[in-house]
Structures are given as structure tokens and as C-alpha cells.
């Protein structure tokens, strides 16, 4: 049933983190998933993240009958048409750029489409949802948001602290997203602090 | 006169190394240069080379009326049509990939179109033209040539030792190039050792 519904729809999984391999991609096809945001950086630094992308490039080659890389929205429609699942590479943290704004443009060119501004704890950009205090977006973070806007990388606010989230929403000139969340009505959890009322 | 001839022709400068800035690009336009191989790695490691590419991305943005980045031969024709000089980013050494074959694919995607296999001295791939001995292409070097063939990066043999040059010519499944050279008839020079008779 859901497969039928999925076959007629554009269905994008907001976030998948996994030991990605062919079996995972086969399951994506079974579910008629149009596209997915697949994590390729959580705590990794610049070089480690580049090496993760190298591994992804091989996954794209070895599983070209099941998946294709998404660089633009057009690529999502193309994947749908070709009966493949489009992979949007994404990050759950900003560690991959270290302290270099300029790296964002290179990562965008390599296919990074979405970056979460913090992952539970504090980083150079802002504060995660598990921290005791959240001072909001840093000045470096404001430059990061502006550059993500410019090159076309979506700001993800999942796992981000409430003040930092609000600051990103106000600073961003483009729509932002919560790619994955836990509604407080279902379970009280630090991430629910991010809910803006 | 030469400007007239250039305006009717496809003229590619095989190698330029410079403190690249707007004045250099203006001169390229004055000469009606269609495209140029511009060096962005000589001794730099992976991270330093990536930072050089970041600087180039800004040069492309800031001088978009004069230059455009070349990723494919089509981009050279496009630059010609638009009255700009197409910039082919290239390396004069392989230090930018350190010991990682997989980095070549990422650099190709960022626009690296040509790599010189060695710069005067020995590296992990082979030997430069100033060395006393030249043992030829290393096993790692053979993998580098194969991967450059696969992703579409041209092997440059300028500054490369004679035995390494010969090995690359025999190993490469695609044409190779001497982007710049010094004919021995004009001046005796170590690089002329690379001349194959």
C-alpha cells in the first residue's frame, strides 16, 4: 500500500544515518523512496569528511542501478524518473569545515546539500540541544549561515539548541528545516526545547 | 596581428604560474587567449591545495566578466563564445593527493584537469627531471595514472624524468602531454633528458 502511494509521490527521507551499503539502497528502492538526506559528517574534521565523500563516490559507482547523487532539485526528479533513489549528502554538524568559511563552497560542489548547525553540544557556530546554556549563533556562525545561503546549502535545526535555532531562523534569508524531530507531546526530550512557540 | 589570429583560433596556453589577479586576467583577454592551464599546486599538501582552490573560486566570482572555469572541452568552446578566457586548474606535482588515490575524483569534480607526475625531484609517483637516478613509475604511480585516466585528468610529463615519462606514456590508456618544455637544440637542460627519441 505505502509502496503504491510512494510510487506516485515524491517521498524524501529527512535523515538517514547508517552503515551505508547495497542492502540499505535495495531497501530504499523497495520502499520507493524518491530521495534521502544521508549523513556523511557527524564529528569528522575536514580531511575525514573528504574521505567519507570519497567512499560515497565509490558507493555511487558500485550501486548506480539503485542510487544517484543529488546536486539540485532537478536531480531528485531525475532519480524519480529513472527509478532510483536520489542521495542528498548531508552533515549533522559543522566540524567538516573546521574554521574555514571557504570550504562550504567546495563541499556544495561535491554534493553537500544540508548541514545541521550543531549536534547536541556546542561548536564554533552555535549550541546543541543537550547543552545547559545556549548563547545563540556565534559571529562565525552568522557568516556560515550567510555562506550556506549563498552557495545553496540548507540549514538543519534538528539537535540544535533553542536560542541558536531562533537565531538561525532570523539570520537565514532562505527557508530552514528540522529534518528530524521528536514532538514533546510524545516524549519529553532535550531536543523538544527547540520547539518555538 | 597576433590578437587577430587569436580571435579566430582556439589558443590554449599550456602552462601559466603566476600571482593570479585581475591584471593577469585582463592581459589574457587582451591576447585573446581562449584557455590556459593555471597552476594551483606545486608543493602543497591536500589541505593547502584545497585552500588554493577556495581562493580560485573567489577569483572566478570576482572576475566573472573575464574568466570562467573549465570542467570539460565544452567549457573551452563556451568561454570562447562568451569572450572570456577559460581557466583549466592544474597541478605541477602530485603532492595534493598525498597518499590517497580517491582524492583524484574529488579534485576532478572541483575542476582539476591536468596533473604533472613529478616536479624536478622524486615523489611517491615517480621521478623528476633533475634527479640523478630515475627508477620509473612506482606501483602507486601506476594506480594514479589509471585513476587519472578513469576520471579524466591529463598526465603532464613536463619536469618529469625520462624513465618515469616513458613508463607513464606506456601505462596511460589516454594521450599524455608535455604542457611546457625546453627543446635541447635551444639549450641543454635537465628537462631535455625527457626527450624521447
Give a brief description.
Two copies of one chain form a homodimer. With 197 residues, chain A is α/β, with parallel strands linked by helices.
What does this structure look like?
- 2 copies of one chain form a homodimer.
- Chain A has 7 helices and 6 strands, in the order αβαβαβαβαβαβα.
- Chain A is an alpha/beta fold.
- Chain A folds into 2 domains: about 1-90, no CATH class; about 105-195, no CATH class.
- In chain A, strands 1, 2, 3, 4, 5 and 6 form a 6-stranded parallel β-sheet that branches.
- The radius of gyration of chain A is 17 Å and the shape is globular.
- The termini of chain A are far apart.
- The model of chain A has no long low-confidence stretch (mean pLDDT about 95).
- The interface of A and B includes residues 50, 54, 55, 57 and 106 of A.
Q: Topology, pairings included?
A:
The structure is a homodimer of 197-residue chains.
Chain A: H1 2-8, E1 12-16, H2 22-30, E2 35-41, H3 46-62, E3 67-69, H4 73-82, E4 85-91, H5 103-109, E5 112-116, H6 139-151, E6 154-156, H7 162-171
Parallel strand pairs in A: 1-2, 2-4, 3-4, 4-5, 5-6
Amino acid at each position: 500500500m505505502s509502496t503504491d502511494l510512494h510510487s506516485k509521490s515524491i517521498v524524501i527521507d529527512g535523515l538517514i544515518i547508517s552503515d551505508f551499503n547495497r542492502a540499505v539502497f535495495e531497501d530504499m528502492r523497495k520502499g520507493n523512496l524518491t530521495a534521502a538526506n544521508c549523513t556523511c559528517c557527524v564529528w569528522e574534521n575536514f580531511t575525514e569528511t573528504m574521505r567519507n565523500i570519497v567512499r560515497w563516490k565509490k558507493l555511487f559507482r558500485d550501486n548506480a542501478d539503485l542510487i544517484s547523487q543529488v546536486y539540485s532539485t532537478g536531480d531528485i526528479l531525475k532519480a524519480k524518473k529513472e527509478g532510483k533513489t536520489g542521495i542528498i549528502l548531508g552533515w549533522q554538524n559543522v566540524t567538516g569545515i573546521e574554521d574555514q568559511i571557504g570550504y562550504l563552497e567546495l563541499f556544495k560542489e561535491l554534493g553537500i546539500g544540508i548541514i545541521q548547525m550543531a549536534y547536541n553540544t556546542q561548536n564554533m557556530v552555535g549550541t546543541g540541544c543537550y547543552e545547559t546554556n545556549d548563547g545563540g549563533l556565534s559571529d562565525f556562525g552568522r557568516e556560515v549561515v550567510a555562506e550556506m545561503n549563498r552557495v545553496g546549502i540548507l540549514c538543519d535545526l534538528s539537535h540544535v539548541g533553542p536560542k541558536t535555532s531562533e537565531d538561525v531562523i532570523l539570520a537565514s534569508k532562505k527557508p530552514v528545516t528540522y529534518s528530524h524531530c521528536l514532538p514533546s507531546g510524545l516524549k519529553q526530550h532535550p531536543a523538544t526545547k527547540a520547539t518555538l512557540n
